[in-house]
Design goal:
single chain; mainly alpha; 6 helices; 50% helix; globular
Length: 137
């Protein structure tokens, strides 16, 4: 793949991508709930439940809300960036990846992205190809 860097051409800002990376990281570390009906005290359990998924998970809710609040072009760019970071193409394929993401756009972007394993890693990789620092310095 060509590692040539280009100017940022996505309609979603690098700052929004950084925010979504941070939220995705917090979401990615969650594990499936192991004791959904626990009646014990959280401090007695070492607060382990905070690392498990729950129906009222604040992290998931915040991430889903942030993605839904993006306009359609930003959502399309975000999906294309996930694909770019997943190595479905390189920076030279950006227009094609974006076109495919636009064709696939259906109003369920948040669910699709939240169901993507390693989303934070993929989103972190993509801005680097544009010459942007993916995470705050």
């Amino acid at each position: 793949m060509n590692n040539q860097r280009r100017e940022w051409i996505a309609s979603i800002s690098p700052d929004k991508v950084r925010y979504l990376i941070a939220k995705s990281r917090k979401f990615d570390v969650k594990d499936v709930g192991t004791d959904p009906h626990s009646g014990s005290n959280a401090t007695d359990d070492g607060m382990i439940a905070i690392l498990e998924e729950h129906p009222d998970d604040v992290v998931e809710s915040e991430l889903r809300s942030a993605i839904r609040s993006l306009n359609e072009d930003e959502q399309v760019d975000l999906v294309a960036m996930a694909w770019l970071g997943r190595r479905d193409g390189d920076i030279n394929d950006w227009a094609d990846l974006r076109r495919q993401a636009a064709d696939a756009h259906n109003g369920r972007t948040a669910s699709y992205l939240l169901g993507t394993p390693l989303l934070a890693d993929y989103l972190e990789e993509a801005p680097d190809q544009f010459g942007e620092t993916p995470t705050p310095d």
